[in-house]
Amino acid sequence: MLDIRILASAIALLSFAVSGFPGTGTAMAQTMTVELMTIDDRKAVFGTVESVDTIDARARIGGTLTEMSVDEGSVVTAGQALARIVDDKLDAQAAAVRARVDALRAQLLQAETDLARAERLLASGTAPQSRVDDAQTVVDVLVAQIAAAQAEERVVQEQFAEGAILAPTDGRVLAVHAVDGTVVLPGEPLATIAAETFVLRVYLPERHARFLAAGDAVEVGSGLLVDEPAAWRQGTVRQVYPRLEQGRVVADVDVAGLGDFFVGERVRVYVSTGQREAVVIPSDYVFGRFGVDYVRLETGVDVTVRVGAPAGLADHSDAVEILSGLRPGDRIVPPETAVTP
Questions:
Q1: Would the pTM of this model clear 0.85, i.e. be above it?
Q2: Please, which of 47, 180, 305, 311 could form a disulfide with 200 given CB 3.0 to 4.6 Å?
Q3: Domain 19-38+276-333 listed as CATH 2.40.420.20
Q4: Residue 56: enclosing H or E segment and its boundaries?
């Protein structure tokens, strides 16, 4: 009685394992009828890890570069000081402006004294009004000249501040284009920074452009340069660019945790390029012998098959495509199934 119960439990487990595939029998659950299934025709391409935005930290003034504090791979935050540019001419300009302001202030003091004297003489009737007007004009001109000199001084101070090279955004330094002691010009790029948002940029032949759209799901392999298990990740097409480059359509793919990859790393990506019919069976029905793959028919005959890539079915992750060796209508059984003579 116990043996009958064990046999019934084993048959129930086999029925659950193959349920959901076309041609699966319920009375004889371990037997499966091979039928064609519609699957996505996936194309394997390589995607390159890229930053959505790549920004240059540029020099705003000319001079000699000093205090370079970052290197390739450094993580920076927006506004962080990366280096400083020193221009010795700015010190001389600042000293000249300060001296001119001091001279103008001395002249203003004298002009205000002359104006006060002219106003007293006018009140006593010994000086004409024109003398007071001339003195007032001299005072107004000197006040305006001092204001202009002070504005010029602020420009020089701003040039001092612009000597600091600041990170334009949060991200990682991809390249440093200069070292301490380098003479740089205004507008020259000193460091290239990748923003923190990373995507996989894939290139497909233009014949596949009509099959690709934003929101499509793709499969992404693990990093080639990172020591991690060879597992697949799910990605989503973020954007498809409307312009073809050298006969290829360009698309960006969002993948969780992509910031841990190296920028510029190539990663394998499977992209759907249409649908087709194929023979798909559970991988448990395939067994190997001396390096050759076999599938056992219901009659007990083991046939040689050529196994393709995983079928990519959402509800059957263990399903594989059979490229040759089986035909629709064949009835197969798991390899451990005993065949009654």
A1: no
A2: 47
A3: yes
A4: strand 54-58
Side chain identity at residue 156, one-letter code: V
The matching CATH number, chosen from 2.40.440.10, 2.40.30.170, 3.30.450.20, 1.20.272.10, for 45-52+197-274 is: 2.40.30.170
Q: Return the CATH architecture of domain 53-86+164-196.
A: Beta Barrel (2.40)
Q: How far apart are CA 82 and CA 120, in angstroms?
A: 61
CB 170: neighbour CB atoms within 10 A? 15
| The two three-digit tokens of residue 154, written as one number | 């602020």
Distance set, CA 203 to CA 51, 129, 223, 240, 249 (Å): 16, 85, 18, 10, 6
Q: Please name which of 279, 311, 259, 326 lies closest in space to residue 36, comparing C-alpha atoms.
A: 279
Residue labelled with tokens 């101070």: 157
Per-residue burial over 34-63, b = 16 or more CB atoms within 10 Å of its CB, e = otherwise: bbebebbbbbebebebbbeeebebebbbeb
On the 0-12 / 13-18 / 19+ scale of CB atoms within 10 A, 135 is buried
Half-sphere exposure of 20 (CA within 13 A, CB side): 13
Angle at 190 between CA 181 and CA 158, to 5 degrees: 85
Percent helix, percent strand, percent coil in the chain, to nearest 5: 30, 35, 35
The H-assigned helical ranges of the chain are: 2-18, 88-124, 129-162
| Residue 266 pLDDT exceeds 90 | no
Q: Are the CB atoms for 191 and 172 separated by under 8 Å?
A: no
Please write the tens of the pLDDT for every residue from 122-177: 888 888 888 899 999 999 999 999 999 999 999 999 999 999 999 998 888 889 99
Domains 19-38+276-333 and 53-86+164-196 share a fold: no
Side chain identity at residue 28, one-letter code:
M
CA distance 331 to 295: 10
